Amino acid sequence: MNKQKKSLSKTAKLQKVRFGIVGLVNTGVDFSILFLLIALFSLPAVVANMGSTLIALAVSYALNKRAVFGDSSTNNVRQIVTFVTITLFGLWVLQGIVIMGLPTLLWMFYGLGDGTSLFIAKLIAVVASLTWNYLWYSRVIFKPTNSQE
Prior knowledge:
elongated; about 150 residues; mainly alpha
């Protein structure tokens, strides 16, 4: 029994490491596209964030399903709908709140410029949404079945 608990604990730690790596990849995709959309098309930050997160969303689903949670189920419709709903809430609602409010506070209290404020706000927003996502992905979306445990 103790050996089984250690094995599950090790698996959970490795899963979190893989989730973190996938999160870094997705964050790189998200940040790159966000700033390209702003620089090349002069889109407002929140609009550019929606575009960048849509692309990162597709990458995230594929990598989380296989590489992080080892999910091999083929009935994906409910899983995709739930994944998209949970992820978009984190990306657009949680991140949107931070991106809309934090740069102003950073400017007011620290005198930071628009680019620096947006970068810091986006970084904090990403941490909040990554935490949100892991909790939902591991407990609801890609929850192991009894045969996978």
